[in-house]
Amino acid sequence: MSPSIHPSIDPRSQCNGRVLFFAAVGPTYRDLTKRNVLHLAASGSGSIDFFLAHYAGNSSWWRSQAWHDAFVKYSVFYKAQKVDYVHRELVNRQTYDLSFYCFYWIADENIKFLDLNVINYLKLAQDSGAHITQAAVNFGEGLASHDSVNAFQTDVKLELQASGRQVDGRCLYRYTDFVEVMSPVFSTFDALRIAYGIHNTSLHSDWGLDIVWCRYVAFRLGTSPETSCAIIDAETMAKLPHQRSYEQSDAEEANAAVLRKYNAFRTETLNLSMPGAVQQCRVKGSQELAYLHFESGLQTRYILPYLKCSMRYGPRICLFPGMWHMWPFLLAGFLTPTVPCTCYLLWLRAPEPKQP
């Protein structure tokens, strides 16, 4: 039986600040897995327990690694999708009862955490009071994601709520109603259980969960949907290219199944390049909250990181959702040096005008 919800009780009072980091891993990213575990263990000052689910099923290499034996507290070896592991091992507690942790970090294996400070991240996540958080996506180091979760590379214009004054600055974290499935951190076991309760267990893709889970978890826990989720801007992660472990048709079916039942809880801030989109943010260096207005010009800040990513991985793989908003700017950027040069060459090739 799943535990009942007691909103008046703070589960962290009994969990001693412990964090469970869970990832489904295989041979492709095993070197990154090792580096992530070692970095997070050191950065977390011993507050993190690691659970690796090995979907390739072969345990010999992993068990031969000293770091795996030293740092990985829980492990299973059988073939499954990440979302199935979460249901079986975390929610339903098939192998271990892990319902006593303060935070549950569910990560994809292709996410690089080597620049993330765990202690600072968790401090800000707890300070935000959000049920689900994620680090901002630094697409200067990898692939970009939805514009609502990408990290800003420079200062942005903020409107302080108390005074209405405009300032240039950065957010420590932003409130949102969209946190991706690739690396969410759940603040309680109840939040994790409710979020994954959205998923139809007969389907083997987690597509669609992140479109609705922020507002649905807030609804079930009786809290405001405006502060249910947060992007931690002060700490970033990088998303590396990977091959899909599922069929596109299965993902689309899972997404459609979620929206058929939970469409009333659908995110309103997935693509923040739409005119009038606003997020609340905690301003760096201040205790104040501010409004971050996503005017269309903000998207131009993505051009240089996109070009950097394209040179490393190729232009097609670096495209991200909402990218179509940027095409006028990208096209203009490519054409700017080309247009005058082309005109000059045409002028050189043009025939001399005939005398009347």
What are the defining features of this structure?
356 residues; 13-stranded mixed β-sheet; Spore Coat Polysaccharide Biosynthesis Protein SpsA, Chain A; 12 helices; alpha/beta; disordered C terminus; disordered N terminus
Can you characterise this structure?
Strands 1, 2, 3, 4, 5, 6, 7, 8, 9, 10, 11, 12 and 13 form a 13-stranded mixed beta sheet that branches. The longest helix has 15 residues, at 248-262. By secondary structure, the protein is α/β, with parallel strands linked by helices. The protein is 33% helix and 20% strand. It has one domain: Spore Coat Polysaccharide Biosynthesis Protein SpsA, Chain A. Helix 7 packs across helix 8. The chain has twelve helices and 13 strands. Strand 7 (156-160) and strand 8 form a beta hairpin.
Brief write-up:
The chain is α/β, with parallel strands linked by helices and 356 residues long. Helices cover 33% and strands 20% of the residues. Strands 1, 2, 3, 4, 5, 6, 7, 8, 9, 10, 11, 12 and 13 form a 13-stranded mixed beta sheet that branches.
